[in-house]
Amino acid sequence: DAKTTQPTSMDCAEGRAANLPCNHSTISGNEYVYWYRQIHSQGPQYIIHGLKNNETNEMASLIITEDRKSSTLILPHATLRDTAVYYCIVNNNAGNMLTFGGGTRLMVKP
Amino acid sequence: DADVTQTPRNRITKTGKRIMLECSQTKGHDRMYWYRQDPGLGLRLIYYSFDVKDINKGEISDGYSVSRQAQAKFSLSLESAIPNQTALYFCATSDPTDRGYNEQFFGPGTRLTVL
């Protein structure tokens, strides 16, 4: 599975959009981009995934560049409860295993 | 009730002791996983199972063993615990046929301390 690079930490004001970047320059054509988050030592929680097209669900939006070498997770109106570590993971589904890097620690501030 | 449960939630033990961590799921998933998380780091895969009687090593299997007793149960054992196995342990389940993608559902974690 391709390796990902994320900033170690980010801050965001409550109510504003949080934009979390991820680089995955070695991604293969059959690999998906997944985002999970982990709130304070709880089990990680799935957020969203995508292959080529931008995706949106009730939690977030995922923007994938045309060359698929990077992506951005967008939390449109961040709340204090969105404070967590966010993991960007590239996976080809077939092996069904996730490789977690260090993630981005997002701090949402009042 | 939680879909993925882990017992115990916290455990303190001594070096050399045998420890078993239990995971149960009610999601009906075939695939189950054990991960380990050290402070400030991401999760690392220890073992995984795609079905009953199917066992596969992950990234860091040394010092651990697992048992898949039934579809719903996946146990992780530390045969002789050592202090550097002190960590947070997570169980997860998935089923690639569920909506056709790789969403894993995680348990609440077991905090293990080896003295």
Indicate the topology.
The complex is a heterodimer of chains A (110) and B (115).
Chain A lengths: L8 E5 L4 E6 L8 E7 L6 E6 L4 E2 L4 E4 L5 E6 L8 E8 L12 E6 L1
Parallel strand pairs in A: 1-9
Antiparallel strand pairs in A: 2-7, 3-4, 3-8, 5-6, 6-7, 8-9
Chain B lengths: L3 E4 L2 E4 L5 E7 L5 E7 L5 E7 L6 E2 L6 E7 L2 E6 L8 E8 L10 E2 L3 E5 L1
Parallel strand pairs in B: 2-11
Antiparallel strand pairs in B: 1-3, 3-8, 4-5, 4-9, 5-6, 7-8, 9-10, 9-11
Tell me the β content of chain B: over 45%
Overall helicity of chain B: under 10%
Oligomeric status: heterodimer
Q: H/E order of the elements of chain B?
A: EEEEEEEEEEE
Strand order of the largest sheet of chain A: 1-9-8-3-4
Characterise this structure.
With 110 residues, chain A is mainly beta. Chain A has strands spanning 9-13, 18-23, 32-38, 45-50, 55-56, 61-64, 70-75, 84-91, 104-109. The radius of gyration of chain A is 13 Å and the shape is globular. With 115 residues, chain B is mostly beta strands. Chain B has no helices and eleven strands. In chain B, strands 2, 4, 5, 6, 9, 10 and 11 form a seven-stranded mixed beta sheet that branches. Chain B has a four-stranded antiparallel beta sheet with strand order 1-3-8-7, with no helix packed on it. In chain B, β4 (31-37) and β5 form a beta hairpin. Chain B is globular. The termini of chain B are far apart. The chains are: A mainly beta (110), B mainly beta (115). Chains A and B meet through β3 and β4 of A and β4, β5, β9 and β10 of B.
Overview in brief:
The complex is a heterodimer of chains A (110) and B (115). Chain A is built from no helices and nine strands.
